[in-house]
Specification:
- This protein has 145 residues and is mostly beta strands.
- The chain contains two helices and eight strands; from the N terminus they run E-E-E-E-E-H-E-H-E-E.
- Strands 1, 2, 3, 4, 5 and 6 form a six-stranded antiparallel β-sheet that branches. It has a two-stranded antiparallel sheet with strand order 7-8.
- The longest helix is centred in the middle third of the chain and has 8 residues.
- About 12% of the residues have low confidence.
Length: 145
């Protein structure tokens, strides 16, 4: 018997146009909403998804928030849902106006102002590869190295 299947990570950009106020830098701008998930495939056909997470990346400063799953599922189904501040959890601080002091010497005692930012970073927990400017994994929220 021959079995071709596996587990993978996927993401889908939701076609949702929302104006939000960034809790990090205070700007009111558009944002990109992404659904990140794991999936099981059989003969290269995704059969089911689990661990769906809805992430919002702000276009002002690049801050990344995790969206309340109930609101994210409603948006993914095409329903009109209001995104409130209490529905957002900060995962990745941005590089906007409010971040100037943070970049000079962050609360973690390190600074990337003198270092070159890597192209990608790999999460030590879930092995998810994210863009180099992310400090936290958009998949599991773990601090990236």
């Amino acid at each position: 018997m021959f079995f071709i299947g596996g587990v993978g990570q996927g993401s889908k950009i939701l076609n949702v146009s929302k104006q939000l106020t960034c809790k990090f830098c205070g700007s009111q701008v558009g944002c990109q909403i992404v659904m990140a998930y794991y999936y099981f495939s059989f003969f290269f056909i995704p059969l089911f998804k689990w661990n769906r997470r809805f992430l919002i990346k702000m276009s002002c400063c690049g801050a990344v928030y995790e969206l309340n799953p109930a609101v994210g599922k409603a948006l993914a189904r095409g329903q009109q849902a209001e995104i409130r501040n209490e529905d957002l959890k900060l995962l990745q601080e941005g590089k906007g106006r409010a971040a100037a002091s943070w970049q000079a010497g962050s609360q973690f005692g390190e600074s990337e102002t003198d270092e070159e930012i890597p192209q990608t970073r790999c999460c030590p927990i879930c092995k998810y590869e994210s863009p180099g400017e992310f400090r936290y994994c958009p998949n599991c929220g773990q601090r990236l190295r």
